[in-house]
Write a structure and sequence with these properties.
The protein is mainly alpha-helical and 194 residues long. The protein contains six helices and five strands, in the order αββαβββαααα. The strands form two sheets. The chain has a three-stranded mixed beta sheet, covered by helices on one side. A two-stranded antiparallel sheet has the order 1-2. The longest helix is centred in the middle third of the chain and has 18 residues. The two termini are 26 Å apart. The structure holds zinc ion (ZN).
Length: 194
């Protein structure tokens, strides 16, 4: 099957349909954004229409495993849960971009890692060995799973301590060195790439 087919099946599939969470984007009550299953359906529709291009990439620079830039998703083949989690990460960036969300770079990355890890947790693979930022996202994803199991309606808010720890981890990570010169919640000019 083609990458396009596999990604569209992923975005419209049963595991994605379970994803729903909210996260804070600023200090004031009500300053929050949400990622839900329809966020990914919107990305699937954009791939279908050509508004978002999808390219298969067979090699990435060290430390990079997928990317979203300039309305183009570059992904490795998505044939195992780890690569699907990565696709969920990149498609989360694509959603924020096409929906023109005003969220900061740190929140964008944190939400993308949380969504990718949540995908693995929902697959029953939360204990899989994963790279650092996904590991840092595990407490966020596991907290959401607990909320789902408790029957929480709508999109539950992430655990705020776990969310802050994830943001701090991302800011310190070598791949996100470029974020360090900015204020944590600066929303100016972030292209939702990466
Ligand atoms: Zn990213």
């Amino acid at each position: 099957m083609s990458l396009r087919h596999d990604v569209l099946m992923l975005l419209r599939g049963p595991v994605i349909s379970a994803i729903r969470f909210r996260f804070p984007i600023g200090p004031l009550p009500g300053n929050e954004e949400a990622v839900v299953s329809t966020s990914y359906h919107r990305v699937a529709d954009a791939i279908d229409s050509g508004a978002v291009r999808l390219k298969e990439a067979t090699s990435f620079p060290p430390g990079i495993a997928g990317e979203y830039t300039s309305n183009t998703l570059r992904l490795s083949p998505v044939r195992d849960p780890a690569s699907r989690a990565l696709a969920v990460h990149e498609c989360t960036h694509a959603f924020f971009d096409i929906a023109r969300k005003r969220i900061s770079d740190q929140n964008d990355e944190a939400a993308a890692y949380a969504a990718g890890m949540l995908y693995l947790v929902l697959c029953g693979l939360g204990g899989s060995p994963v790279s650092g930022p996904y590991d840092a996202a595990r407490p966020v994803a596991e907290g959401l799973l607990q909320a789902y199991r408790a029957g929480t309606a709508g999109a539950p808010m992430v655990d705020l301590a776990a969310w802050q720890a994830l943001r701090t981890y991302i800011r310190a990570h070598p791949s996100y060195r470029h974020l360090r010169g900015r204020w944590p919640d600066d929303t100016r000019g972030y292209p939702h790439d990466g």
